[in-house]
Design goal:
Keywords: Cell inner membrane, Cell membrane, Membrane, Transmembrane, Transmembrane helix, Transport. This protein is an all-alpha fold. It has one domain: MetI-like (MetI-like fold), CATH 1.10.3720. Helices cover 75% and strands 0% of the residues. The model has no long low-confidence stretch (mean pLDDT 86).
Length: 261
């Protein structure tokens, strides 16, 4: 027991005086970084889930040029894709509270006064706008022959959309959607600007409390890299499963007849 205690004291002394990085301080605060990672993952994947559900009907309406809905959806995607995510978060968190009608509504105490909900709403609407646009492109580029074959089988428009068009579009949108997932994860660092203790927020807290230069940011960076690696690996497996039939295959070499003696 004494040997273990002395070894830990030596590690702390070495980390504080000789090491360029105070790794023992990082180790002592790892639980905070895991809590911050949980906040980051909750915001990211809830926004992706709800935003994806919103994007599917909007993409269908955009792809089929619905007369009334298409201009409205196009304006929505233009606003959220054409403005920085930080501005959108600030508008929800700081801007809505300036209206007396919002403060007197039932949503103020339950939702809009909370930074977590404001960030989630901004992230959801932002990722829904981006997902709508690239899913619209995937729907529009569905092979015409598959649609004609579905019509020849007597499928209704709803059945064609459910069985042919959407599964085809989802498969081909996988590479673009993997980028959107990673971009949303990276964009989640904005949550720390409105008092949420996500990964970057914990890194800022560590640096500010102990007057450090980069230990907190370096630890947050390693966490982000690990999460991105897992996301990329999961999407590679999904692409291998759902897009394997689109890969070019090697043509078998022709068999040569044996040479006559």
């Amino acid at each position: 027991m004494e040997t273990e205690r002395s070894f830990l004291e030596y590690l702390h002394s070495f980390s504080e005086t000789r090491s360029p990085i105070n790794f023992m301080l990082i180790y002592d605060n790892l639980d905070r970084f895991f809590d911050g990672a949980l906040v980051t993952l909750q915001l990211t994947f809830l926004a992706l889930l709800v935003g994806g559900l919103i994007a599917v009907p909007l993409a269908i309406a955009r792809a089929y040029r619905k007369p009334f809905l298409n201009p409205i959806i196009r304006a929505y995607t233009y606003v959220f894709c054409g403005t920085p995510l930080l501005v959108q978060v600030y508008l929800f968190y700081f801007g809505l509270g300036q209206f007396q009608s919002v403060q007197e509504s039932f949503l103020w105490d339950r939702v809009l006064s909370s930074p977590w909900w404001c960030v989630l709403i901004a992230f959801t609407l932002n990722t829904a706008a981006y997902t709508t646009e690239f899913l619209r492109g995937a729907i529009e580029t569905t092979p015409h022959g598959e649609i004609e074959a579905a019509k020849a089988c007597g499928m209704s428009p709803v059945t064609r959309m459910r069985i042919v068009v959407l599964p085809n579009a989802f498969r081909r949108a996988l590479p673009a959607y993997s980028n959107e997932v990673i971009f949303t994860l990276h964009g989640s660092v904005i949550a720390s600007t409105v008092t949420l203790q996500d990964l970057l927020g914990v890194g800022r807290w560590l640096n500010g409390r102990y007057y450090l230069a980069y230990e907190g940011f370096l630890t947050a960076m390693l966490f982000y890299m690990a999460i991105v690696f897992l996301i990329s690996f999961a999407f590679r497996l999904a692409e291998r499963k759902f897009l394997g039939h689109l890969r070019p295959r090697e043509t078998p070499k022709p068999k040569t007849a044996p040479a006559l003696a």
